[in-house]
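Subgroup meeting minutes
Present: P.N., E.W., G.H.
Scribe: E.W.

1. P.N. recapped why we're keeping a running log of single-chain structure predictions: easier to compare across weeks, and new members can see raw inputs and outputs side by side.
2. G.H. added today's entry (155 aa).
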Amino acid sequence: MLHSSGVDIRLVKAPHSAGRRPSFVGDFDWDDTEARRAAANRNSAAYAPAPRQPGMDALFEVEYPGAEQAVLACRDVFIVWGAELDSGLTAGWLGLPAMNANHWLAVTQLWWDEPTPGQATIIGIEPRPNDDSTFGHRPVPAPSIKLKPRHAEGS
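Output recorded in log:
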């Protein structure tokens, strides 16, 4: 878990069988761990739509007064990732877990790997030694690091 500015970010693996195409409604159940259940409960408490009366419009057609402010109180975010073992391709999403029938308040895609031309897609095929797509031949990223200024004591 990464805790930053009051937001808790958890990395969640999509089920192996789903690869890069998980069903966000059917493949996730927050009862598997206490931490995930607690995060979903906190978001649900922060963003709880008003109770619906019988005969009301469909849920997504009902205005939620103050939704823009209410969603800011959701402080638990999950980064979900999925992978295909045969291709090595991955995909990721950012979502707000909730204790509702859909298991999410919202989910948006962060990335979707596309195969490169000539990429091996079968387990057991190794890249050629001069293949620039191998991990060891990729350029090393240069992090941008700055020291935080220190304030003098007494100021």
